[in-house]
Amino acid sequence: MASRELLQYSNVTRRLSLCFGGYFYLHGIYLMKALGCGAYNLIALRTFNNEVTIAMKGNRGIHGRIGSSCWIALLCLLFVTCLSFSLQSNAGSREQARRIHDRLAGVPPSDAVLQQMEDAINGVGGQTILDAADIAMNNPAFYAVTLKNIVAPWTNRDQDIFVPLNDYIATYIGLVRDQSDFRRILYDDVIYVGNNAPAYSNSNNGHYEALENSNTNLAVPANLFALAQSDPAASGLNTNATAGVMTSRAGARAFFADGTNRAMLRYTVLNHLCYDMEQLKDTTRPADRIRQDISRTPGGDSRLFMNNCVGCHAGMDPLAQAYAYYQWDYSGDPDTGNLRYTPGTVEAKYFINATTFPHGFVTPDDRWDNFWREGINKELVKWDTNNSGLQSGGYGPKSLGIELANSEAFARCHVSHAFKAVCLREPADNADVNEISRITGVFKSNNYNLKRVFAETASYCAGN
Ligand code: HEC
Predict the structure, then answer these.
(1) What distance in angstroms lies between residue 29's CA and the mean position of ligand 1's atoms?
(2) How far is the CA of 260 from the centre of ligand 1 (A)?
(3) What does pLDDT average to over the chain?
(4) Of 5, 29, 263, 392, which sits with the fewest C-beta atoms within 10 Å of its C-beta?
(5) Residue nearest to atom 26 of ligand 1 (CA)
(6) d(CA 86, CA 371)
(7) Strand partners, 245
(8) What is the pLDDT of residues 410-435, one digit of tens each?
């Protein structure tokens, strides 16, 4: 069971508890237990204002299997929840307000907040439903739970949602809250920190764990604020070497550790453009930048190279070259390592297994080129979607981040993430797909204000 599905179930149980109060919620749990979910312990994702988000964790972790009777129980829960949704399908403004709050914050509003939101929906003082959503987004749980749960799986290779707050997650939360140009997440000299002890450290995550454990309200700017990564109080990385979350500590820990640095490209594209390499495969691209570690005759068959390996590696290798000067430096426990930046010196991992194909590309520097500007990915990704005359190549991850963040896929991807989190489902029909296109347009024309996207999405899924 993938972590995303698990999140949906956690949302379902959470919603149940919201819809029916603790009484029915408990019955839901007992139903699941009675029907064979006993092996699955319930774990609290997070407590906030004494609200508890519940998820199930199996003996084999979140990828553990659930018995069939347990599925029946889950389906029953799902059914009851759907029933409650359908009963609400002709929601009045109060119901809409309640639902917007519930979807964005995951907790019920106070009566006062509910009234303010209802007034906004009813146009009091010239307000709109978007103002109602803004009111809901003042709730600290929007930041600490809803936004955190979107980003947490992006910050590790297992896509595990159960990870502590870290600088990657905090930076996403901060950029949303401050209605910043969200493209900065992939290229800017920015990181969000708290004002708590211990201070930001390059060699551990203690700063963010303390911030999370203190239940600090992240909606308050003084509690979570932007620093330059190049600031000595943050990582102190050379400003030209910074590239948003790609050079965050958590990002580097996850995707520069071991391997060949191709993982940073793969996961960044997966989480920020919503395409995995498999979907971008294009065997028509030139193979001249594929490194030496890729066999041209895998299993003794050069056709396999031409029909398969080239599809990913021809495009991926010249992009991942941008990270040639980066490494996750550690000995023993990787969690205590730190990002190493060696300008002018290509990391040794770019030369491993050089004898596999000695005539392969030998990385001389951090020059990247986007061979996927042409071919099938031209239309799929729609590069330089704002026609700002971006170059299809450059040096280092900052310009690569600009290239990725200015694709249509980037804008659409972040709208889709918001949609799934707020509507609690994948886009299902034409209306949903059209709405995602519309909101993507709104996102771009409002200087990539992602908070606005959450407001638009919550309004769309509030019923009418
Ligand atoms: C669907 C895309 C895709 C295809 C097709 C593909 N690769 Fe890869 N390859 C990757 C990615 C992504 C990585 C980086 C993996 C990581 O570090 O997480 C990688 C890494 C590698 C590595 C570095 C060692 C490692 O495991 O990290 C080798 C060697 C390799 N690929 C060989 C091949 C060969 C040979 C073929 C053809 C038989 C092939 N690849 C086809 C995507 C692909």
Answers:
(1) 43
(2) 10
(3) 87
(4) 5
(5) 259
(6) 48
(7) 243
(8) 999 999 999 999 999 999 999 999 99
Interstrand relation of 338-341 and 326-329 (parallel, antiparallel or unpaired): antiparallel
**Rounded distance between C-alpha atoms, residue 346 and residue 322, angstroms:** 10
User: Ligand 1 atom closest to Cα of 262?
Assistant: 14
pTM: 0.83
Whether pLDDT at 162 is above 60? yes
For residue 438, CA distances in Å to 303, 362, 459 come to 43, 44, 13
The pick from 278, 309, 372 for probing ligand 1's pocket by mutation, whose C-beta has the most ligand atoms within 8 angstroms, reads 309
More confident residue, 19 or 134: 134
* Mutation to probe ligand 1, out of 278, 312, 321, 372 (largest number of atoms < 8 A from CB): 312
The alpha carbon of 292 is separated from its chain's Cα centroid by a whole number of angstroms, namely: 32
Q: Which amino acid is at 350?
A: Y
Q: Residue 71: what pLDDT?
A: 57
Q: Is 1 in the pocket of ligand 1 (CB under 6 A)?
A: no
Whole-angstrom CA distances from 253 to 40, 155, 198, 269, 367 are: 30, 9, 19, 17, 23
Cβ within 8 Å of residue 192, ≥6 positions away: 167, 170, 171, 173, 174, 175, 224, 225, 226, 227
Does ligand 1 lie within 6 Å of residue 266's CB atom? Answer: yes
Which of 363, 371, 370, 275 is CA-nearest to residue 326? 363
How far apart, in whole angstroms, are the C-alpha atoms of residue 245 and residue 345? 22
How large a percentage of the chain has pLDDT more than 70?
Answer: 80
Please tell me if the CB atom of residue 254 comes closer than 6 angstroms to any atom of ligand 1. no
Q: Is the CB of 408 under 6 A from ligand 1?
A: no
Task: Tell how far the Cα of 366 is from the centroid of ligand 1, in angstroms.
Answer: 20
How far apart CA 347 and CA 323 sit, in angstroms, is 9
- What does the pLDDT look like over 301-335, one tens digit per residue? 999 999 999 999 999 999 999 999 999 999 999 99
- pLDDT tens for each residue of 196-232: 999 999 999 999 999 999 999 999 999 999 999 999 9
Q: Is residue 60's pLDDT more than 80?
A: no
Distance 92 CA to ligand 1 centre (A): 53
